[in-house]
Each structure stands twice: as C-alpha cells, then as structure tokens.
Specification:
By secondary structure, the protein is of the alpha+beta class. It has three domains: about 240 residues, SGNH hydrolase (Rossmann fold); about 150 residues, Sandwich (Jelly Rolls); about 100 residues. It is about 20% helix and about 30% strand. It is built from 13 helices and 37 strands. Helix 5 packs across helix 13. The termini are far apart. The relative contact order is 0.11.
Amino acid sequence: MVNARNATRPLARAICAFLLSASSAAVAAPVLDPAFGDHAVIQRDRPVPVSGSAAPGEMVTVTLGDRSQRVKADTKGRFLARFDPVTTTGPVPLSAESPSGRVVARDVLVGDVFLCSGQSNMEMEVRSAQDGAGQSRAGGDDQLRLMTVAKQTADEPRATFADAPAWQVASPDTVRTFSAACYYMVRDLRKEKGVPIGAIASSWGGSQISTWMGEGAQAAVGWADRSALLKLHARDAAAGERAAGAAWEAWWRKATGDKAGQEPWQPASPQDWAPVPSVGPWEQWGVPALADYNGMVWFRREVVLTAAQAKAAARIALGTLDDVGRVWINGKGVGMSPRAWQPNMFDIPAGVLRAGANVIIVNVQDSYANGGMEGPADDMKLTFAEADTMPLGEGWTYAIARQSPFDAPRVPWSDLAGAGTAYHAMIAPFGSIGLKGVAWYQGESDTDIPGYAGRMAAMMADWRRQFASPDLSFVIVQLAGYGKPATAPEESGWGYLRHAQHQAVAADAHAGLASAIDLGDPFDIHPGEKQELGRRLARAMRAVAYGDSIPANGPQAVSAMADPGGDVTVRFVGLTGGLRVRSGDRPVAFELCGDAPGTCRYAAARVDGNSVTLSGDGQPVAKVRYAWADYAVVNLYDEAPLPVGPFEMAVSRP
C-alpha cells in the first residue's frame, strides 16, 4: 500500500516548482524606467525613447499606442526602444513584454513635460510657501502629473536611479509636498495651454551649479581636472582622498603663504587655542567674535593610543561639520566631509596613528548661517574594532583662523559642490526623454564664485546634449533679494550673480529670464511668495518654449547714453506697455558711477516713455547701475507688470 503522505510529495514538488518558476518570471519581467511608469506624461512632438530593464540578452517588445518595437536587452539588462514623435495629446497605451512577463504602464498621457531644478528656492514645497494649505486644497487636476527626485549622488553618470522616483496625479496630498515654484508655473501653463502636463522636480538646497554640470560642462569651463579626480575616486576612493588632500594643502600654502611644515594642521602649530565651550554651532558659544561669523575655525584634540590601537584599522566619526570640514591626524590628511549637514565618518589610512600621543586637527569652514562641529557629541568617536571605541565628544580646543580664504576647494565627490555628482544621480538617469522646457532657480551658493555666466551656458549646452534637444528651452530665475536692505551704494556678490544670469540668458536664443528681485525677504533667504514667481516663470516659458509673442526676459536696459549736459538716458526693451513707477513719481535704486571703486552714488531719475533719465551731478560718470545690492528696494515696472531687471552698464557718449 502506498503511503498517502509519500504519494503527495511529487505533486507538492511540482506545485513548488511552478510557484518558484512563476515568482522568477515575475521578478524577471521587464521594468519600465520611472519616466515611463504609471501616470507618466510623454512629451508630444519629440522622439520617444522608452527605456527600462529586463533579463540580459532577452528580447523585449515595447508597444506605444499602435506601434511596437522589438529590442534586445544588453549585457547589463538595459533596453531602449525609439519611437517617432506622438503629435496627439491625451491617453496612450504603453507596455513592455518579454518571455519572462509583461508590464503595463497605466494612465499614461501625451502632453508637455517640464524639468524644474536648482537649489532650495526651487526645492521649497507648496506647504512651506505662502498660503500653502489653501493652494494645496485646490490642487486637484488629473491632467497634471508630478514627480520629485530624491536627493542622491554618484561619482559617475547612472543609467538608473538608486532611489527611483514615480509619477503622481496632482491632488491636494501630492501638491503640498511638491516644488512650489514648479507647481505654480505648470499650473498656469495648464490653464493657458489646456494640454496634459508633467512636472519633474529635481533640486537640492544649498547646491552650487557645479554639482549639476556633467563632464562635458566641467571641461567647457576649465574644470576637467575635477572630473578626472572624481573618476579616480570612483576607481579608488583612498587614492582620490590622497590626491584631493594634497591639492587642498597646496591651495592653502599658495593662498596664505604658509611654508610646508608650518601650516595650521601641523601638531605643534602655534594657534591661539582656547577650550571649546560645547559641541554645537559656534554662534551659540557666547564668543563675540563668533556670534555672526562665517569663515574658518580650527579644532584640536589629543588622544593617547595603545600600540594595538595604533596598528588596528580605524575610523573617526566627527558628527556634522557645518558647512564642510577637513581632518588631519598627526599632520597627515585623513579626508574631507563630502556631505553637507550630515554626520561624517572617515577611514584612517594605515600608518597615520601611532602608539602614545596623537593630535587630531579639523578645519571647519562655514559660509552661511550656523557653523561648527555640531555633533551630536555622543556620535563623535574613534573606532578600532567592533567593541573598541574612544569617545571624542569633549576635550577639544579651537582657534579662529588667522587667514580664511573663501575659495577653498571642495572634494569633487561632495554633494553640494561636486563635479557633477547630483547631475550623475538625479538628471543623467532620465536619459534622452523629451522635454518642453527647463526651469532653473539656483545661484545663491555661487554668489562669490566668478564665472557664473560661463557655467550656466555650459550646463545648458550639456543638458541639451543629454536630452537630444539643441533648442531645449530654459527659463532662469534671477535671484530674489536677501540680506540687509541697501542704504548706500555698495558692491554686491548677489548683484554680480544676477548680472551673470542676465548675461547667460541674453547670449542664448532659447533662454528666458524671470526676475524675482522684488519678491525677496531681507530676513529669509527662502522667500515665501512663490505664486507670483510661478506666474513669471510660466510667462517666460510661454515665450521661449511655446513661441508666444511676449517678451522672454521682461524689461531690460539695452543702452546708457550721456548727453553734453551730464545727464544719462537709459533705454529699455522687452516692455509690455510702458514704464510705470510705484509709490511715487520717480524711480529709485539707480546709481551713477565713476571709474574708481567707491564712486557710485544714488541718482535722481525720471521716466520718459520707454527710457529713464538720470540727472548728472557734476561728477565723472563711467557706468550706470540699477538695483545693485543683495537686497534692493525697487519701484519700476512695466504694465505686465514685471519689474525692471537689475543691471550694470557702461555709459556711451555721442
């Protein structure tokens, strides 16, 4: 007689085999990239490169509408099917099928797709901007789709996202956590154009433009060496750290004149060391010199190690170094913090530690708000083995740097100042998807770094190459005002940055400018008025992306001509209607300047049609400036109404 339990075993094995096979097939089924997932919007009138992943070597049939392409996944399991442009807006079927399974992207639309990028003012969510709650509640629109890319970095361009984003239908819940500037722009464009729109937000607060520039853009501005160092780090992280450390030390000696062996990171460096009151921002120590200090501070601590500890593989954790820190032990470089406002941990190279006394020195550089060795103290320690640690949360001394050069190099694998690290992870994975336009709000972190116009031009060219769109439209936000309101003419890093933004746009036939000069807040670098900013972005995008017959840049000065009597007439173009003065009968914020530094002075001005005449004061005049301050008060608009953009311009004579 056959045992019933034994009789069922072949059947059980067959069922298990079937389930395992089905599970494997499900796992191996094709996967469409996020840009082509559920609720996606595909750019109309552009080639459609549908991409995804499948089993290496597998044949995949991709269907878009009534057309199909049969393509082979490469050795890395990537496939790409190229389709001709789709011209009709609205729903479109999209699927990918292979012997391993089938995937269907649901609720896909054809319309216009916009990419919004930059730093914190583009990142700011609707819920954090003015009237965020009210605007979120009214945010439902099933023809508007939103995607937010999570912050991530990579040493090399990625084909896929490490943290994949997803499309979401605009609703009160999804709108509230989306980029405010981007949302208000596309909301206006939806009303104006009446087509489905997809908006992608890929931003990082505090980022410099360099981290958004690919290798080609880096080379275009003379930074190929940074890309080469980043590639070295990708191959060999320790070698990259050594090379970056040597470059930083060479920069320091050149910038300060210190001789080798006499630098502040040497163990016996004769600094004015004082006890650190507490781990935390130095602004909170009660030290007058540090109450509002941006610059460098040196930190020092001694530790005594056993011979076994000195020989062991070791790591040092120093918590958050705000903004950025570089570490030496016994005068030898250990590393530089690559992540802003996040805890840092460094592997200590072999041969650095020694039995007995060891000296740890940390340079912390801060350029905005709070700075310092912020801990938390409990996380600061030396680790030699899993159970052998040495606390480092107390016992530090500090010295304010005698010299604090502002242009200290950052490691090119850092997040906020890297050589394309955000681009590699947050832009490159989109491949060559079709876009209608790009909205860019960034520059606050570049205000003291010369050459922004060139970097902006290089980045736009590089993104156009990636997205296979030589005429891809860009709209740049000209920085809002921030800081102490100007009461006298002065030099302004923000003024120069705004001027560079205008230069980059003026030199580009497919770029527009949305000035935010009047939307700022002297006390908050993140002004809450994003609805008006969105309207201005949408207006400029209508001009450059849709070809509407409206000025792309708003009112801009094009010439400044002096007459024999000493008056200077500034002529404007890009006006909607004429010039209008608010809260008075005369415009403010105009300056007449001589050739020498410190010769700028406010000028009496009057509007005359599409021009403004500045009254001469008997002093030499070489150039004219307008709204040239970190935070300028302005009152001159056109009838759109858009503010007259800031400028600096040489004066011509008949």
